[in-house]
Amino acid sequence: MSFYKEISNLLEVSEFYRGLFPDYKTSGGYSLARVCDRVLSSKLCKEEQMSNWERRPLRKSQIHYAALDAWILV
Q1: What is the tally of structural domains in the chain?
Q2: How far apart are CA 66 and CA 46, in angstroms?
Q3: Which residues have CB under 8 Å from 4's CB, separation 6+?
Q4: Which three-class secondary structure state does DSSP give residue 9?
């Protein structure tokens, strides 16, 4: 997956957050859910993260999860 090296303006949120708050220690690392909780004071529901994404059609909850997971980065 070296293609990401060719994408300009790529930002890895957890790395960016680690750069802003290097002293922030957490046992769960710098996951998007933890960053969201800390920066926005809001929980990011990860219930569908490990669901079966190969099964079609996707459930509404899976579509909502995927959209929110992408939207939160904006």
Answers
A1: 1
A2: 10
A3: 10
A4: coil
Residues 6 or more apart from 19 whose CB is under 8 A from it?
none
Q: Is residue 19 part of a domain?
A: yes
Q: Which residue range forms the structural domain that includes residue 18?
A: 9-44+55-71
The amino acid at 1? M
Asked if the structure places residue 4 within a domain, the reply is: no
DSSP state of 29: -
In a domain, 63, yes or no: yes
3 in any annotated domain: no
What's the rounded Cα separation, in Å, for the pair 8 and 54?
Answer: 30
Task: Kindly give the confidence (pLDDT) of every residue in the chain, 74 residues in length, as a single tens digit, with 9 standing for 90 and above.
Answer: 676 667 777 778 878 888 887 776 666 677 888 888 888 888 888 899 999 999 999 999 999 999 998 888 87
Q: What is the pTM of this model?
A: 0.66
